[in-house]
Amino acid sequence: MNAQAPIKLIDGKAAAARVLAEVSAEVRQMKAAGLAPGLAVVLVGQDPASQVYVRNKVLRAEECGIRSLEHKLPADTAEAELLQLIHTLNGDDSVNGILVQLPLPGHIDESRVLQAVSPLKDVDGFHAENVGGLSQGREVLTPCTPAGCLRLLEDTCGDLAGKHAVVIGRSNIVGKPMAALLLKAHCTVTVVHSKSANLKDLCRQADIVVAAVGRPRLVDAEWIKPGAVVIDVGINRIEEDGRSKLVGDVDFDSALAHAAAITPVPGGVGPMTIAFLMKNTLAAARLQHPAQPNLAKLPEAPCRSIS
Ligand SMILES: Nc1nc(=O)c2c([nH]1)NC[C@@H]1CN(c3ccc(C(=O)N[C@@H](CCC(=O)O)C(=O)O)cc3)C=[N+]21
Questions:
Q1: Is 57 a catalytic residue?
Q2: Contact residues of ligand 1, CB 6 A cut-off
Q3: Which is the catalytic residue, given 101, 249, 251, 288?
Q4: How far away, in angstroms, is 122 Cα from ligand 1 center?
Q5: Most ligand 1 atoms within 8 A of CB, residue of 53, 58, 131, 274 to mutate
Q6: Is 268 labelled as part of a ligand binding site?
Q7: Residue 169 labelled as part of a binding site
Q8: What is the CA radius of gyration of the chain?
Q9: How far is CA 54 from CA 2, 67, 102, 121, 248, in A?
Q10: Is omega for the bond preceding 146 within 30 degrees of 0, making it cis?
Q11: How far, in Å, is the centroid of ligand 1 from the Cα of 53?
């Protein structure tokens, strides 16, 4: 009766493990060529969720042989002091990647801080130089979450050319760079957001839906065209049945009825974000050593954000 393909769960943990295995192999080659890649993670304040992410990043880095340095600063750190730390890290040759965990406390100007990170060490791809480069389709350091989503989509759908992708959300961290990457992959891209008219109708036209709005379970089966592929970027902590739960921007159980394939939360996009942070750290190390003959002999970067 139903000719549709069986529902497929997109396993972000398994995909991330594959990416991390590639990273580990590359780290070994880099070390053989005399370079031990290092990542600095800067956390300002005590936000418990951020602390969990930072801990996960440090663990994954260690697993694939990347040195990670954690800088924890108190919530009342002055902007000038944070900028000074970034300048020090910019000038430290043992640091190849710098990640400043967001959000920053309200008294700190986020864009000034992101602009202070050297574009060659900007493993988040948030510096204007890299944002502009991505928009021009140049090979630059690219934000980790959208890069991870693109890999999941390519693994699931193969060639993305000509597909209609609807990105829900227009943040600088996910929505906008996701749209740029999908365009680069030859999709027809629609970006919708909280002020869009006919949000649901637009979404229902999509072959690919990427939900990144931060609204728990906003997207249900009615938003999804039968056979569409759904990537859920949302990580929302909610209270339900007297306990705390992690849910996405997609109502998973409902969307499952229409989707050909869908990412779970947790275990979907989150682990891929961290895996691509590691990949970007290696890509950054390569950018910083363009003339090093031994590194130049390394195989082409399989990092999609670069190659
Ligand atoms: N400059 C900056 N860059 C970021 O990339 C950045 C940031 N700031 N601030 C916070 C958000 C959030 N983020 C996550 C990364 C991984 C998981 C992750 O691994 N999640 C797992 C476990 C989740 C859990 O159990 O808590 C999963 O979804 O399966 C989650 C969230 C990166 N962010």
A1: yes
A2: 50, 52-53, 56, 99-102, 124, 144-145, 235, 246, 265-267, 270-271, 273-274
A3: 101
A4: 17
A5: 53
A6: no
A7: yes
A8: 19
A9: 45, 14, 11, 18, 20
A10: no
A11: 5
What is 34-118's CATH topology? Answer: Rossmann fold (3.40.50)
Q: Is 158 annotated as a binding residue?
A: no
Residue tagged active-site, from 8, 11, 46, 57: 57
Per-domain boundaries in the chain: 34-118, 143-270
Partners of residue 286 on adjacent β-strands:
none
Note whether 34-118 and 143-270 share their fold.
yes
Q: Which two tokens stand for residue 95?
A: 């640091």
In single-letter form, the type of residue at position 266 comes to P
101 given a catalytic annotation: yes
- Examine the residue annotation and report whether 124 is marked as an active-site residue of this protein: yes
Per-residue pLDDT of the chain (307 residues; tens, 9 = 90+): 445 556 589 999 999 999 999 999 999 999 999 999 999 999 999 887 788 888 899 999 999 999 999 999 999 999 999 999 999 999 999 999 999 999 999 999 999 999 999 999 999 999 999 999 999 999 999 999 999 999 999 999 999 999 999 999 999 999 999 999 999 999 999 999 999 999 999 999 999 999 999 999 999 999 999 999 999 999 999 999 999 999 999 999 999 999 999 999 999 999 999 999 999 999 999 999 987 756 655 545 444 444 3
Residue holding tokens 């969990």? 52
| Strand, helix or coil for residue 104 | coil
Instruction: Among 3.50.50.60, 3.40.50.720, 3.40.33.10, 3.40.50.10490, name the CATH number for the domain at 143-270.
Output: 3.40.50.720
- pTM of the shown model: 0.93
Burial 16-41 (b: 16+ CB within 10 A, else e): beebbebbeebbeebeeeebebbbbb
Query: 28 labelled as ligand-binding?
Result: no
